[in-house]
């Protein structure tokens, strides 16, 4: 009787460590993965087609829901893309620009906290995940005070932001941990003095965690570029490319920050380090934005026609989202609705790396790899 | 061999470090848990909960003029609005105003679109219903929930630019149906004709009499009240009656009025 050499295992669609509704088909030879393929589409919500029937402002809440863990960056991509479509007709006030950057970077910290926490939990460390949620909760109450929503903000508008920051939300640079859920300065100080060192000691320096992630799921720089990876996955492979520096959108060219790069050849630990470093860089940007915002009050909404009808044309706008390059392609036929919206989500691209990285790894490492590329299924399927 | 020992030492060390951190976190740090069903978390005043309808507490009319801008602004088409024009008052009367909360995504666009300050984002966040059919919030329910954000508003379009952000329309006034100041007013009253002057209840009228001190208008007002009250009685709803009144006297009053 012929003995089956390979075993096909389904991970998902409701496996608790798959970050959403994802089905991974894995062929196993013993414990070694020989073949892996993600099966997606369980969360498809027809975002791109739906956008063709909505006016431009009405699309903004839908972009929130693509990557619901980093909603502001998605809004930023669509809103800036539409403003680009208008050309010089819409001028965004400077204060609104700073608020956008402030919130986008704040959101990046928030998103990376979850990414790191979820990856640690996938590997078996549940405590860091709970700490991540504790701190995210503080950030969400700040977002709630600013925008009114906890996860899905619908805050950016074409031509500015919906409202100015509420009084007292910025705080002062001396705010400590006791104000972490009341002022942004309070949270940033709390983050720098407590959260980040805690992550460093608890997870990054943890030898057991390093064993699980070092030399696992290596992605070479050439492959990362060839597969279109971006964000922490690309930088983890050693490619120093960040759209905030290389092709600055908004006003990122006014801020000082560094781009962390992985040094060990693009394994899971590299991606971890890059994300952890990025949080600190984001905190630097937030501090600079806070300093500017405290001194410069002003308008937060530019002059925008009541009915938005961009001129005929098409635009491709790319920004550095929390997970990588978020970009949108908008075609306008001169009407109130976009003729076509194409959304490029980094998670979709990164998920296609699974068949490349996984073969040769152990089955337990698949979870570590999945955690390290940090996918949000809502964005994969859109 | 030495490498293995070194690795084991490092692993043990990081293990102890982790335990140390979690122990400190457990003992010396404040607890952050909110025991939810027992104690409710506070939300900021502009929290986006449910879109609700506001009432003008002066007369009890709803602020909504059935203009339909919220229906157009809604990205997911959850607002149903049916209206007709009242032949007497010449105003639009909403026959049905319903929000399908099972599909509403709380984006705030309806509130921003409303030019008459008729909608408000409520602060309630417990939106669960046992029966999915109950997720369609009808007008009466929306008005009842929105009552506690209502105030005595001056009619007319809301100020577009003010000190507050344009989406902070609601302050929690905590009003109830008792606070409707018009004698003939009730919750869910259709918009009245243009020249309509409300007749205030006794406790609200006092303040006005203090304001205009000339003695002559006071009796005139009382007369006007007597003249209007019977005509308005059929429109009144039971909650308007003072709850302290025994049932017998209430019916007796009504009988007397009808006899008049």
In percent, how helical is the residue content of chain B?
A: 25-40%
Q: Give the distance, in angstroms, between the N- and C-terminal Cα atoms of chain A.
A: 46 Å
CATH class descriptor of chain A = Mainly Alpha
With helices defined by DSSP (H or I, 4 residues minimum), what is the helix count of chain B?
A: 7
Write down the overall mean pLDDT of chain B: 71
Which band does the percent of strand residues of chain B land in? 5-15%
* Shape field of chain B: elongated
Mean pLDDT of chain A: 86
Give a verbal description of the structure.
- The complex is a heterodimer of chains A (382) and B (260).
- Chain A is of the alpha+beta class and 382 residues long.
- Chain A has a single domain, classed as Cytochrome-c3 Hydrogenase, chain B, CATH 1.10.645.
- Chain A is built from 15 helices and eight strands.
- In chain A, helix 5 (126-147) runs antiparallel to helix 6 (184-204) and helix 6 runs antiparallel to helix 11.
- The mean pLDDT of chain A is 86.
- Chain B has 260 residues and is α+β, with helices and mostly antiparallel strands.
- Chain B has one domain (34-240): Alpha-Beta Plaits.
- Chain B contains seven helices and five strands, in the order H-E-H-E-E-H-E-E-H-H-H-H.
- The interface between A and B is medium-sized, with 30 and 30 residues.
């Amino acid at each position: 009787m012929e003995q089956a050499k390979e075993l096909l295992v389904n991970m998902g669609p409701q496996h608790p460590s798959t970050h959403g509704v994802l089905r991974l088909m894995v062929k196993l030879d013993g414990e070694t993965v020989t073949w892996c393929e993600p099966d997606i589409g369980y969360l498809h919500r027809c975002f791109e087609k739906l956008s063709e029937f909505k006016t431009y402002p009405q699309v903004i809440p839908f972009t929130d829901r693509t990557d619901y863990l980093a909603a502001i960056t998605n809004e930023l991509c669509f809103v800036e893309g539409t403003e680009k479509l208008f050309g010089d007709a819409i001028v965004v006030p400077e204060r609104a620009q700073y608020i956008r950057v402030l919130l986008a970077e704040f959101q990046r910290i928030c998103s990376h906290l979850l990414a790191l926490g979820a990856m640690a939990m996938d590997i078996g460390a549940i405590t860091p995940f709970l700490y991540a949620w504790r701190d995210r909760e503080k950030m969400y109450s700040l977002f709630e005070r600013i925008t009114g929503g906890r996860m899905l903000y619908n805050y950016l508008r074409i031509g500015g932001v919906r409202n100015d920051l509420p009084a007292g939300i910025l705080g002062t640079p001396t705010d400590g941990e006791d104000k972490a859920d009341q002022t942004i300065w309070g949270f940033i100080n709390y983050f720098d003095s407590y959260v980040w060192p805690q992550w460093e000691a608890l997870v990054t320096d943890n030898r057991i965690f390093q064993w699980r992630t070092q030399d696992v799921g290596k992605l070479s720089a050439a492959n990362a570029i060839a597969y279109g990876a971006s964000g922490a996955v690309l930088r983890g492979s050693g490619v120093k490319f960040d759209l905030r520096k290389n092709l600055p959108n908004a006003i990122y060219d006014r801020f000082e920050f560094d781009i962390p790069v992985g040094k060990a050849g693009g394994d899971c630990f590299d991606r971890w380090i890059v994300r952890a470093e990025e949080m600190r860089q984001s905190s630097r940007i937030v501090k600079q934005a806070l300093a500017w915002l405290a001194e410069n009050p002003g308008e937060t909404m530019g002059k925008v026609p009541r009915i938005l009808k961009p001129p005929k044309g098409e635009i491709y706008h790319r920004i550095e989202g929390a997970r990588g390059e978020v970009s949108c392609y908008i075609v306008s036929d001169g009407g109130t609705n976009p003729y076509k919206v194409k959304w490029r989500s980094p998670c979709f691209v990164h998920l296609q790396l699974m068949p490349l990285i996984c073969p040769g790894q152990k089955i337990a490492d698949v979870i570590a790899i999945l955690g390290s590329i940090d996918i949000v299924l809502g964005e994969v399927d859109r | 061999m030495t490498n293995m020992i070194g690795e084991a030492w490092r692993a043990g060390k990081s293990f102890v470090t982790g335990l140390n951190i979690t122990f400190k976190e457990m003992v010396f740090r404040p607890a952050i848990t909110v025991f939810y069903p027992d104690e409710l978390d506070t939300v900021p005043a502009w929290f986006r909960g449910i879109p609700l309808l506001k009432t003008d507490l002066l007369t009890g009319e709803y602020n909504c003029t059935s203009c339909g801008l919220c229906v157009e602004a809604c990205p997911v088409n959850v607002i149903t609005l049916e209206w007709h024009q009242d032949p007497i008052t010449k105003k639009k009367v909403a026959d049905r105003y319903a929000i399908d909360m099972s599909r509403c995504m709380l984006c705030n666009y309806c509130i921003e679109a409303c030019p008459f300050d008729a909608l408000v984002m409520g602060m309630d966040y417990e939106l669960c219903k046992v029966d999915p059919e109950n997720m369609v919030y009808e007008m009466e329910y929306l008005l009842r929930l929105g009552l506690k954000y209502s105030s005595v508003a001056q009619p007319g379009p809301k100020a577009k630019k003010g000190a507050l952000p344009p989406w902070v329309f609601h302050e929690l006034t905590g009003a109830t149906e008792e606070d409707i100041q018009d004698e003939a007013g009730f919750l869910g009253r259709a918009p009245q004709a243009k020249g309509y002057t409300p007749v205030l209840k006794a406790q609200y009228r006092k303040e006005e009499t203090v304001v205009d001190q000339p003695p002559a208008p006071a009796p005139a007002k009382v007369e006007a009240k007597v003249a209007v009250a019977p005509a308005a009685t059929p429109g009144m709803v039971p909650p308007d009656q003072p709850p302290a009144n025994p049932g017998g006297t209430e019916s007796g009053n009504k009988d007397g009025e009808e006899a008049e």
